[in-house]
Design goal:
GO molecular function, one term: cyclic-di-GMP binding
Number of domains: 1
Strand content: 35-45%
Protein name: PilZ domain-containing protein
CATH architecture: Beta Barrel
Oligomer: single chain
Shape: globular
Organism: Marinobacter persicus
Helix content: 10-25%
Low-confidence stretches: 107-111
Pfam families: PilZ
CATH topology: Thrombin, subunit H
Distance between the termini: 32 Å
InterPro entries: PilZ_domain (IPR009875)
Amino acid sequence: MEHRLSQRIEGQLPILVYKKGMPVGTGEIRDASRRGVFVSTDYSDVRLNQTIQLGFRVPEITEDHQTLSAHVVRRSKDGFGLDFDGAENNTRAIFALIMWLNENTHAAQDG
């Protein structure tokens, strides 16, 4: 049984994966919470506990490019899970991401 400390919101948001400030891959956020995200990607050059950055823009909420740092906590053939805990982040960027995913998930389910 899986135990999560915060609810995950499913969605699809394109991202760039950065390592040490350099773009190294692309993918999309498949689900997110205030504690972390799962990134669907073909990029696999990550290891557990490694810190990486995600770059994204939240449509309709901000025109600004957002960047979040996170630690790799899980790897799979489809991507990797990231945890924000212990990484310095702009909480407004996390909030904007969650709000956008939440609004767009409901719109997709309702319509």
